[in-house]
Amino acid sequence: MRGKKVPQGLIVYDGPSMLTGDPILGIITTKTRNPKTGRRMMQLWIVPKGVHPVKAIKTGQDRAVCGNCPLRGWTRDGRRQRRRCYVNPLGPGAVYSAYRRRRYRKATPILVWRVLSRAGVALRLGAWGDPAALPRDLVATLTAFVTRWTGYTHQWREIDPAWSRYVMASADSAEDRAAARALGYRCFRVRRAADPVLAGEVTCPAAAEAGKRTTCDRCGLCAGNAGRWQGLKDVVLQAHGAARRFFELTPVLA
């Protein structure tokens, strides 16, 4: 967008969740302070439309955007459990509040192209929320506009394996990894401190345990099987964030 101010955020989706049918939003924020992802990586937030994310997490309404992710505070049959998600709810909460204050523009296809197709721009599919909650055609369009992207799904057992082109399967165990690879996915596995890095895996090069050698906007490893990423190694990362100690102490159940 040469000579024009880049919008603070773009509403790229306003419609039903592909996971539950509930109304959700897809919002791209164009600036970030996340040192791991890097300054050139825009963030796609997938949030419920009619409820604040903090409330949605407490009531189980986050299923509309997180599906049956085993790191939620709810099991797939609706029972409460310890939340293990590393995302601080204040992040999507701030995005939702800005949406309610009408800080973001409803995007047209040409505006999305102008914002995302600038040199070096990368996109994080799901700063919060699972990309599979969105139409796959939309994700295909967004990834076609950017230089690099990252994307992860915990829904790999249930969705069309065609998603493997755009996203990594989120694996919480060696068994998960084997099952996801059998479906055609590359994997991003979270491991406990005592677990080894497995054959065919590489430690996330943007992580502290790998010396922070790069940032996500310059790396490109976590982009599924699309194009030049096909056949690359899986990525592994030691559990981190606010929920790290719960991940270490208790098993993650699908």
What does this structure look like?
With 254 residues, this protein is of the alpha/beta class. The chain has one domain (9-249). It is built from eight helices and ten strands.
Based on helices, strands and strand pairing, what is the structural class? alpha/beta
Low-confidence runs of at least 5 consecutive residues: none
- Average pLDDT reading: 92
Strand content: 15-25%
Number of helices: 8
Q: What kind of assembly state do the chains in view correspond to?
A: single chain
Q: Which sheet architecture does the biggest sheet show? A: 10 strands, mixed
Distance between the termini: 43 Å
Strand order of the largest sheet: 4-1-2-3-5-6-7-8-10-9
Radius of gyration (CA) equals 17 Å
Number of domains: 1
**What would you call the shape?**
globular
Element order: H for helix, E for strand:
EEEHHHEHEHEEHEEHEH
Fraction in helix: 10-25%
Task: Count every beta strand, where a strand is a DSSP E run of 2 or more residues.
Answer: 10
Topology:
Blueprint: E1 9-16, E2 23-29, E3 41-48, H1 53-59, H2 63-66, H3 90-100, E4 105-106, H4 109-116, E5 122-128, H5 136-145, E6 148-153, E7 168-171, H6 174-182, E8 187-191, E9 201-203, H7 216-219, E10 234-238, H8 244-249
Parallel strand pairs: 1-4, 3-5, 5-6, 6-7, 7-8, 8-10, 9-10
Antiparallel strand pairs: 1-2, 2-3
